[in-house]
């Protein structure tokens, strides 16, 4: 691959290559000297047209762990506010001899468009409601780390599937790796095409939890909703929130995940988020290793051209 634009363009072999590379980098970030010189001659621009905390910090840390030169760009303080186009903005950055662009954008397909119009490797850090490939990769990597394999595991994704780029990328990734996938949430937040993706749909959270090995709890994407999809957050929590009473009543161990940010007391209670069954913090740590692997592998394509 010349770019990482989405999971949809990857194969299982691509994903396993990324995972095996991330295994090596996880050892690096857990040793006293956490830096390697792998990308010391590469310059990477982080271009975020949407707010981000974890993803942006994770990419920046991954880049610095690889010894890359890093340029950070925020649209809120840029010439985009004066009417400059996306391509002009990026080309001006690339004129400073940038090799790779990590971009988050509110419009679906923006990284794909960019990849066809600029001379740099492009990594999609989330484009609208379309895809978020590195999040899906780190989620599956975390399942593999916790349970030994992804193949054959039953994974339910709970919440706002309709507006979630994380859900779509996770579905593609999990299916490629041989997992069984179910989505669960209010009918208004499950896309009509869901079953055409080869997954199951369940509207009862208890039944979904009784079925699964792993529950990936998504937040409600209120910033992407242009209408009310359910009466209130309180009612949503009563129907689809995971708390200690419900968890313990299932009577089996379930691995609990969350891509963040966690809205405690809405989709998940604090006692579950902080429990031994939760791998939320491991996901954050694995995110750095996965992003190091992606950047390293794409940088290899740059060096092969030199």
What is the CATH architecture assignment of the largest domain?
A: 3-Layer(aba) Sandwich
What do we call the CATH topology of the largest domain?
Rossmann fold
Low-confidence runs of at least 5 consecutive residues: none
Order of helices and strands: HEHEHEHEHEHEEHEHHEHH
**What is the fourth-level CATH superfamily of the largest domain?**
Aspartate/ornithine carbamoyltransferase
- The CATH class label of the largest domain is Alpha Beta
Net shape: globular
Helical coverage, percent range: 40-55%
* Count of folded domains: 2
Estimated share of beta-strand residues: 5-15%
| Main sheet record | 5 strands, parallel
Write a structural description.
With 306 residues, the chain is α/β, with parallel strands linked by helices. It is built from 11 helices and 9 strands. The strands form 2 sheets. A 5-stranded parallel β-sheet has the order 7-6-5-8-9, sandwiched between helices. The protein starts with 11 loop residues before the first helix and ends with a helix.
Features of the shown structure:
306 residues; Rossmann fold; 2 domains; five-stranded parallel sheet; four-stranded parallel sheet; 9 strands; 15% strand
């Amino acid at each position: 691959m010349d770019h990482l634009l989405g999971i949809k363009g990857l194969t299982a072999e691509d994903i396993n290559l990324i995972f095996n590379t991330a295994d090596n980098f996880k050892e690096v970030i857990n040793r006293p000297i956490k830096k390697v010189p792998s990308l010391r001659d590469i310059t990477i621009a982080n271009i975020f047209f949407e707010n981000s905390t974890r993803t942006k910090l994770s990419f920046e840390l991954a880049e610095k762990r690889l010894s890359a030169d890093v340029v950070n760009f925020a649209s809120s303080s840029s010439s985009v506010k004066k009417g400059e186009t996306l391509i002009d903005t990026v080309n001006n950055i690339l004129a400073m001899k940038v090799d790779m662009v990590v971009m988050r954008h509110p419009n679906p397909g923006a990284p794909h468009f960019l990849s066809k119009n600029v001379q740099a490797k492009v990594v999609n850090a989330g484009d609208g409601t379309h895809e978020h490939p590195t999040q899906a990769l780190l989620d599956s990597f975390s399942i593999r780390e916790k349970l030994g394999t992804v193949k054959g595991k039953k994974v339910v994704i709970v919440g706002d599937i309709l507006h979630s780029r994380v859900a779509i990328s996770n579905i593609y990734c999990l299916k490629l790796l041989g997992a069984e996938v179910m989505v669960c949430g209010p009918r208004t937040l499950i896309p009509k095409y869901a079953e055409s993706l080869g997954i199951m749909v369940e509207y009862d959270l208890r039944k979904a939890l009784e079925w699964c090995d792993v529950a990936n709890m998504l937040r409600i994407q209120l910033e992407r909703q242009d209408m009310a999809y359910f009466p209130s957050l309180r009612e949503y929590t009563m129907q689809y929130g995971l708390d200690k009473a419900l968890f313990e009543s299932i009577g089996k161990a379930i691995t609990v995940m969350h891509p963040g940010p966690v809205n405690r007391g809405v989709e998940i209670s604090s006692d579950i988020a902080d429990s031994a069954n939760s791998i939320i913090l491991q996901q954050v740590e694995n995110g750095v290793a996965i992003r190091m692997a992606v950047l390293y592998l794409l940088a290899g394509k740059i060096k092969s051209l030199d």
